[in-house]
Amino acid sequence: MNHAESRRYPRSLALGEATVQIEPLTPADAGALDAFVQALPVQDLLFVRRDLSHPKVRESWLAAVASGEITSLAARCNGELVGCTAIVSDPLSWSRHVGELRVLVAPAWRGRGLGRALIQENFALALGQGLAKLCVTMTVDQRAAIAVFEELGFRAEAVLRSHVKDRDGQAFDLAILSHDVAEVQGRLELYGVSQALQTS
Length: 200
Prior knowledge:
There is one protein chain. It is built from seven helices and eight strands, in the order E-E-H-H-H-E-E-E-H-E-H-E-E-H-H. Mean pLDDT is 87; it is low at 191-200. The longest helix has 16 residues, at 114-129. The chain has one domain: Gcn5-related N-acetyltransferase (GNAT) (Aminopeptidase, 3-Layer(aba) Sandwich). It has helices spanning 30-38, 42-45, 55-67, 114-129, 143-151, 181-191, 194-199, and strands at 11-15, 18-24, 70-77, 80-88, 98-105, 133-139, 155-165, 171-180. It has an eight-stranded mixed sheet with strand order 1-2-3-4-5-6-8-7, sandwiched between helices.
């Protein structure tokens, strides 16, 4: 089962004069995902463990979405894909309580609150999946993205030196940040809004 089905979609988000629709990513989005990924700077692709520029990697992603292994959201404005996310977890691992969060936003949409909104939406999905922790990885030079995650409560856990290489062979340090989702759940229950999150 796709965990995004536990929330009602599409959800509308007003960002300035624009309205963005957030809904589950599906295999039918293959063409839109291809165009979206091809327009991203190469540096952005280092956020993801596998190189999304390869068609087989995107095909594998969408197949995992279809089977319910990965929960993904798409953000669209006037039909164009402007952002997408994924929560990846392994129910058979010792870290089955941990989800790896991936967030990609089109360059023209950065600084407008879309990334922040997508991260917050994924918190609700993570709570629905019963995850206790969300982790995100990115190269240390992605300062603006790191700042957004830190403002939302993520904290640095580790830096892996020269851990990823781009297509030209240049090595980059990789930062790992995490957030205690269970702590978020506790705060929501304290204020009596957890039930609203699960059903809205």
